[in-house]
């Protein structure tokens, strides 16, 4: 508990007080936001706003986590380090894209395939470590089964297809999930504070989930024997809550400067890093399919983009919505930016509440 509180507090204060320092440094280096011609005209005022702000809260989260572990005199766990690895790795992919854009002052950053290849490389490394490493209890951080609120035994890919093919399919599944989530968060990052605030809700749910899983952990000596059959067989659940708290704290501090009018943008560095962290938390907490609810806002935004694109190509130029992603459609409708962001935050919060509710209902109704 000490590590959780310290991690969240330290990361929040780091990003709260050092974000403007980074913003000024980025401004001096001319690392300003590039605004595309096809975005709403209200975004012209954002031109030149320091970008790549994701660097700030990624560093803050990492420092917060390690300070929390240091003060609690506990060793870092592989599970938490894997979340950090995914966040930093995908943040690095986004950083390359951001740097190419701001240095060239156009939208020609990494190509779409380039981003996907970078994401897959990080995902494969993450998968191999998470599947092959086992903790002191003989449990690996990741599972070979697809999960909802815990592993679904009938979707254990190694049991269905054998060890060799099954492991390959698990790696493909993790890579697909990571690519989908990171791109979904990236698509949602279009208005000041939108992605940061929505991610606070989504990642914050894993503080609750990790803490509950720790209480009902199969290795917890204080576990109530009457409900032992409902226990969670996984690696270091509390550690996932600690790193989630560190990320949330860092985002809260960053959001102070990222709300409209934003003094710094998170850029692809931040959105890809957050997507990677969210995917890693879902994989390691065995809540992969539950992420459809926890990240419901990201699913809605991404689905709208896909439907719009398919319809546009099928009808040779016609559109269902005025713009995509969805938040730009409402801008075209005349909604104020702050109104859109706050309402989307409310929707994100409702999705997260439904996801946590389903997680708890699964525990209540779980049978041997």
From TrEMBL:
Binding positions (Mg(2+)): 186, 268
Transmembrane portions of the chain: 47-66, 78-96, 116-133, 154-174, 194-212, 238-257, 289-312, 340-361
Family per similarity comment: Belongs to the glycosyltransferase 4 family. MraY subfamily.
Swiss-Prot/TrEMBL keywords: Cell cycle, Cell division, Cell membrane, Cell shape, Cell wall biogenesis/degradation, Magnesium, Membrane, Metal-binding, Peptidoglycan synthesis, Transferase, Transmembrane, Transmembrane helix
Catalytic activity: UDP-N-acetyl-alpha-D-muramoyl-L-alanyl-gamma-D-glutamyl-meso-2,6-diaminopimeloyl-D-alanyl-D-alanine + di-trans,octa-cis-undecaprenyl phosphate = di-trans,octa-cis-undecaprenyl diphospho-N-acetyl-alpha-D-muramoyl-L-alanyl-D-glutamyl-meso-2,6-diaminopimeloyl-D-alanyl-D-alanine + UMP
Subcellular location: Cell membrane; Membrane
Main localisation: membrane
Enzyme's top EC category: transferase
InterPro entries reported in the protein's UniProt record: Glycosyl_transferase_4, PNAcMuramoyl-5peptid_Trfase, PNAcMuramoyl-5peptid_Trfase_CS
Protein name stated in the entry: Phospho-N-acetylmuramoyl-pentapeptide-transferase
GO MF annotation: an example: phospho-N-acetylmuramoyl-pentapeptide-transferase activity
Gene Ontology CC annotations of this record: plasma membrane
Listed pathway(s): Cell wall biogenesis; peptidoglycan biosynthesis
Membrane topology: Multi-pass membrane protein
Cofactor names: Mg(2+)
Record-listed E.C. numbers: 2.7.8.13
GO biological process: cell division; cell wall organization; peptidoglycan biosynthetic process; regulation of cell shape
UniProt keyword annotation of Nucleus present: no
Cited function: Catalyzes the initial step of the lipid cycle reactions in the biosynthesis of the cell wall peptidoglycan: transfers peptidoglycan precursor phospho-MurNAc-pentapeptide from UDP-MurNAc-pentapeptide onto the lipid carrier undecaprenyl phosphate, yielding undecaprenyl-pyrophosphoryl-MurNAc-pentapeptide, known as lipid I.
HAMAP family according to UniProt: MraY (MF_00038)
Keyword hit for Cell cycle: yes
Lineage, uppermost ranks: Bacteria, Bacillati, Actinomycetota, Actinomycetes, Micrococcales
């Amino acid at each position: 508990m000490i590590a959780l509180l310290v991690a969240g507090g330290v990361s929040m204060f780091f990003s709260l007080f050092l974000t403007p320092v980074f913003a000024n440094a980025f401004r001096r280096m001319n690392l300003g936001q590039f605004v595309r011609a096809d975005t709403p005209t209200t975004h012209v005022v954002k031109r030149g706003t320091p970008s790549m702000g994701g660097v700030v809260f990624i560093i803050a989260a990492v420092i917060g986590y390690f300070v929390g572990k240091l003060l609690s005199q506990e060793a870092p766990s592989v599970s938490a380090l894997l979340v950090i690895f995914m966040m930093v790795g995908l943040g690095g992919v986004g950083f390359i894209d951001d740097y190419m854009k701001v240095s060239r002052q156009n939208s020609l950053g990494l190509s779409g395939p380039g981003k996907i290849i970078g994401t897959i490389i990080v995902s494969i490394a993450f998968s191999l470590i998470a599947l092959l490493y086992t903790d002191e209890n003989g449990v690996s951080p990741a599972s070979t089964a697809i999960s909802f609120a815990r592993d679904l035994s009938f979707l254990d890919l190694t049991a269905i297809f054998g060890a060799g093919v099954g492991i390959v399919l698990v790696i493909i599944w993790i890579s697909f999930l990571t690519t989908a989530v990171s791109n979904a968060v990236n698509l949602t990052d279009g208005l000041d504070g939108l992605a940061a605030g929505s991610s606070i809700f989504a990642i914050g749910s894993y503080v609750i989930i990790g803490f509950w899983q720790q209480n009902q952990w199969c290795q917890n000596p204080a576990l109530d024997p009457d409900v032992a059959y409902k226990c969670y067989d996984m690696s270091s659940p509390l550690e996932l809550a600690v790193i989630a708290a560190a990320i949330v704290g860092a985002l809260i501090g960053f959001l102070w400067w990222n709300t409209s009018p934003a003094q710094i943008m998170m850029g692809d560095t931040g959105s890809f890093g957050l997507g990677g962290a969210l995917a890693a938390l879902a994989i390691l907490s065995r809540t992969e399919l539950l992420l459809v609810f926890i990240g419901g806002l990201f699913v809605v935004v991404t689905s709208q983009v896909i439907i719009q694109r398919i319809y546009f190509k099928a009808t040779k130029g016609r559109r269902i919505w005025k713009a995509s992603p969805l938040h730009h459609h409402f801008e075209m409708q005349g909604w104020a930016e702050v109104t859109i962001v706050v309402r989307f935050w409310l929707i994100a919060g409702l999705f997260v509440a439904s996801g946590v509710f389903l997680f708890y209902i699964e525990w209540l109704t779980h049978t041997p």
